[in-house]
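Before drawing any conclusions, I looked closely at one protein, both as residues and as discrete backbone shape codes, quoted below without any editing:
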Amino acid sequence: MARWTQKQQILAIVGGAALVCGLMVGGVFYAQGLIDEVEATAESTRQAIAAADAKIAQIDGLEKEVVILRENLGEYVKILPDTRELNDFVRMLDQFERQSGVVNTGLVPKPSRQAKGNERFAPIEYTYEMTGTLWECLKFVNLIENYSRFVNITEFGIASGDQARQENQRNGDVVHTMRLLLQTFTYNGKASGKEVEIPNYANRVEALREEIFKRMQNIKIEKYQLRSTQGRRDILVDPRLRGDLLKDGSSPAEQRAILERCVAETQALLETQQRMRRSDTTMFEQYALEKQLREGVEKLAAALETDAARVTYLPYRVRWAREVVAPFERIRGEVEQGGKPDQRAADPYLPRNELEQLVAQLQADCTAGQLEQAKSRFEVVAARLGVPAGDARHALAVAAKAIHVKATTALDFRSLDLRLHGVVVDRDGRSGVLINGQVYEEGEYVADDLLVKKVEQEQVWFVFRGLTLVRTM
């Protein structure tokens, strides 16, 4: 083998060194790639560990919520009826009909889909049809929505009634037809599925007893209180009524206002009549109520003569006859009979014991300064105080009239415009008083029926219509 020259040896050494360096550089890059891969795997593992730690930290809170929900499950389920309670739900619909006034025209169960074996809540639907005024239908819907069981009205439809037909009216409002789709659910407590076991469950329940009770109080159905009509009109009724229904030109609102006013006045007379019949009503209250009833009947009779011709809308005419005319005629008939005609014809005057009681009460009123009350008390029974002179009750009647005169005189004196600006008291002569800018001495007349009797430092005595009265400075 030929021997290498020196140059060839140098080239071989350099080439070998370059090859070794290349291998070393490749090894470094390969090792770096392995390191990066290991670090990425380590970072992913750390993130997984952090996520697991976060979930582990939530276990206590989740277990707490599960314990509370499990303990309150019975309260949640109470909202939903089981199969046996569906009959109670149907009976409750009947009660809602009576409360609202609607008329049921059909209740049909809707075919339900086949429930899965492991389904906890199975839907049940009914198609319900009814007739009623807008306010009756709204009240029925409100009762359904506020029912203690969960019932959802998923669909509804309203067919407006014919407002021109009398048979389609109820209490002056048009009757409509409404269809509802009612949906509820049954709870299947035996559905398959194994519940997660929570360690030390009994102690957890005991520790969370207060929180469980608080959550139980919040389990309820939100309710809405339906407002009354409050003068609102039926939005399903066309307000543009035919002209022949309003012959005198009064609008429906005006006719309704007349009707409501007369109904209210009639009810007030009925209440007065009922108060007269109560056993705890005193004698003087009886006379006052009787007078009030007679005056009310006369006033309403005059109003009805005018208002009857103004109420021409047929639904309002029906209410007018039923709620105004009929009860008013009964009241007026009893008033005209006089309550106890035989007793009054035999003795038109107050009995002695009632006269004695009247005199005592009039004196007490005057002593207490209740002059208006004394006057009113006398005037209530004034018609029954004309006792003739030969009657044993004559003296009591005269005493009552005398007290009434004094009370009336004192009230008239109280209303006089007497402005006392000052007095001059003369012990040896006649004193004087400055009244309305003019000086009057004792014994002088301020007016034809008003005399200055005595002037003192703090008060002035007058004689008014024969009665001595005093004014204080």
In short: Residues 417-473 form a domain with the SH3 type barrels. fold (CATH 2.30.30). Confidence is low (pLDDT under 50) at residues 242-246, 339-345. The chain is about 50% helix and 15% strand.
